Amino acid sequence: MPLSDLQIRNAKPSIGCTRKLSDGGGLQLWVTPSGGKLWKLAYRFAGKQRKLSLGAYPAITLKDARDRRDKAKRQLAFETDPGQQKRLEAATKANTFSVIANELIEKKRRESKADATMAKIIWLTGMAREDLGDRPIKEITSQEVLSLLRKVEELGHHETARRLRSIIGECFRYAIATGRAETDPTYALRGALVTPKVTHRAALIDPEKFGGLLRAIDGYSGSSAVCAALKLLSLTFCRPVEIRSARWCEYDLDNAVWSIPPEKMKMRRPHKVPLAPQAIEILTELMSLSKGDPASLLFPSLRSIQRPLSENTLNVALRSMGYSGDEMTSHGFRAVASTLLNESGKWNADAIEAQLAHVERNDVRRAYHRAQYWDERVLMMRWWADRLDELRVKSPNRYLARAS
């Protein structure tokens, strides 16, 4: 006799054993000793008695359970094992693009990728999920990926489309490595996208104009911390994020060395910066104004001492001095140093690259560079600081000229 909703709601557990209430057609409600109510389907396939779990009551209602029983019966009519089909569907669901993307993200987190890198990966995979998220990764074709990339290109975001193709390809290669895909459809799309126009970060590589900027920084009437940060950028030509996130514990002023930990570096490798006397002078003055806590930031945000100064703050300071975004950015100090140091002809190009933390991929060559060029880098950084002093004296100051 078929079950009713009232019977199911009132069904009580038995002590020490599971009660089985039949609804007909092999559909059963199992009432466990703990009070749980589970739907099961008893059926025969290939001459063997089998059981199929259909879910728990009340999440799966009586009507839902009957619908699932009927679906299983139709599969049996076509000589398909409902249990095997359920396992295949579960495996397919576990191997969707979203699942693979999540696993790749977690892998990169375990590799201690930079926060900025993780944010970009999450943003790009989120963009891909809109079209590909629920698709089994094995079934995604090159045309599906290209269709997604074309949507991004149509918005004029050519560089984003290129990066999106790259991260989608990473997801496929991870799926291949873990045995859940056989091919990478993004490989066939090489050359299919619009090549983005390369735009280099703005930088004043003309020595006279750069000298004018240095004088403008000296005359900056805004925050003293911002002024000091810009001066250290010019003296060390580190990446802005490395300056902004620097803490006092990284500095050894007695030995004139700044040791940047790997988690703050783009290539996740430690980096040492020789400090010229001019840099030591700035740091000593900053230290006298700070509370002396080794864990504290050199350049905390005006809103919170727990957060670093933003890169936008540095760029806004440059704008206030009369330098547009097409002329100079906080990242542009690196390009200026690279250009002028190479043009001087005084320093080995490998020593300049080592100071810029442009990491040599060959392990042996990288170790050689680190040992071979340290002494040269110490001399180079002192020469560079003196060269900045020369440029500062010789060059006109656009900022002060406008102010007067």
Task: Explain what this protein looks like in three dimensions.
The structure is a single chain. The protein is of the alpha+beta class and 404 residues long. The chain folds into 3 domains: 5-94, 2-Layer Sandwich (Double Stranded RNA Binding Domain); 108-189, DNA polymerase, domain 1 (Orthogonal Bundle), CATH 1.10.150.130; 207-403, hpI Integrase, Chain A, CATH 1.10.443.10. Helix content is 52%, strand content 10%. The strands form 2 sheets. It has a 4-stranded antiparallel beta sheet with strand order 1-2-3-4, covered by helices on one side. A 3-stranded antiparallel beta sheet has the order 5-6-7. The termini are far apart.
Short description:
The chain is α+β, with helices and mostly antiparallel strands and 404 residues long.
Write out key terms for the chains shown:
404 residues; alpha+beta; Double Stranded RNA Binding Domain; DNA polymerase, domain 1; hpI Integrase, Chain A; 3 domains; 4-stranded antiparallel β-sheet; 3-stranded antiparallel β-sheet; 17 helices; 7 strands; 52% helix; 10% strand; elongated; disordered C terminus
Cα shape: elongated
Q: Any low-confidence stretches, pLDDT <50, length ≥5?
A: 399-404
The total domain count is 3
Q: Regarding CATH, which class of the largest domain? A: Mainly Alpha
Question: What would CATH call the homologous superfamily of the largest domain?
Answer: Intergrase catalytic core
Encode the helix/strand succession as letters.
HEEEEHHHHHHHHHEEEHHHHHHH
Contiguous helical run count: 17
Identify the CATH architecture of the largest domain.
Orthogonal Bundle
Estimated structural class: alpha+beta
